[in-house]
Amino acid sequence: MNIDIFKEPMYENDPFYLTIKNFELTIGQINSIEHQDNYLHLKSIMFKTQNIHKLNFLMFKDRPSFRNYDKIKDLEGTIYTYAVKDRNDIDYDCAINLIKNMLSVNPTTKRCILRMANGFLDYYISNDSGKDVSCLSLIHYFEKSVTLIFRASDIKNELFTDLMTIYKFFIRPIYDDEIDISIFANCSQNVSDFKNFIKNVNNL
């Protein structure tokens, strides 16, 4: 596994772009990593059960991603396995099966895209309402690679957790071996932690 950094974030809200080459973790390795991080472990459980109740994250409400914790009703944008149906009109299991079939029938397709982005009005009202919106916009699947496109990414508090949960639930079920994962964020926060993120991935 190695990382190619094409664009490093230099200041707050700067974009970044990188590719993790030959990424592969077994379910056992993923579970071991999860048990070393309470937040990651909880989020993985919520992804698995598609549980969007915010009370599960009460102990983490001080994180920037939960700054509207008191306003939001549920975490329908944060739990991506739940968000699939709202954004794509198919449930999570169906989406995974259709993606596998699409890549099997036409491995060179450029149309295998799973949308996580909310509609414009959701983002427009999200600062002042109880609407929980997604930071992940798209997952674009190719024959031997995947691209994750984020609207925004909190590098310090969320990026590693996002990588682990997205890999476990949206990448590992599709591919049986090593895969290149490109990550592009339109804007990023806590950019001083970027090198620490790279270190954590290299230590996997």
- Domain module tally: 1
State the helix count.
7
What is the CATH topology? Thymidylate Synthase, Chain A
Beta-strand share of residues: 15-25%
Give me the side-by-side strand order of the main sheet.
Answer: 1-2-7-5-4-3
Q: Whole-number radius of gyration?
A: 16 Å
Shape type? globular
The helix/strand order is EEHHHHEHEEEHEEH
Q: Largest sheet at a glance?
A: 6 strands, mixed
Give the CATH class: Alpha Beta
Average pLDDT, rounded to a whole number, is 95
Number of strands: 8
Q: What is the rounded distance between the termini? A: 9 Å
Structural class: alpha/beta
What does this structure look like?
- With 204 residues, this protein is an alpha/beta fold.
- The protein has one domain: 2-Layer Sandwich (Thymidylate Synthase, Chain A), CATH 3.30.572.
- 37% of the residues lie in helices and 20% in strands.
- It contains 7 helices and 8 strands; from the N terminus they run E-E-H-H-H-H-E-H-E-E-E-H-E-E-H.
- Strands 1-2-7-5-4-3 form a 6-stranded mixed sheet. The chain has a two-stranded parallel sheet with strand order 6-8.
- Strand 1 and strand 2 (16-23) form a beta hairpin.
- The protein is globular.
- The protein starts with a strand and ends with a helix.
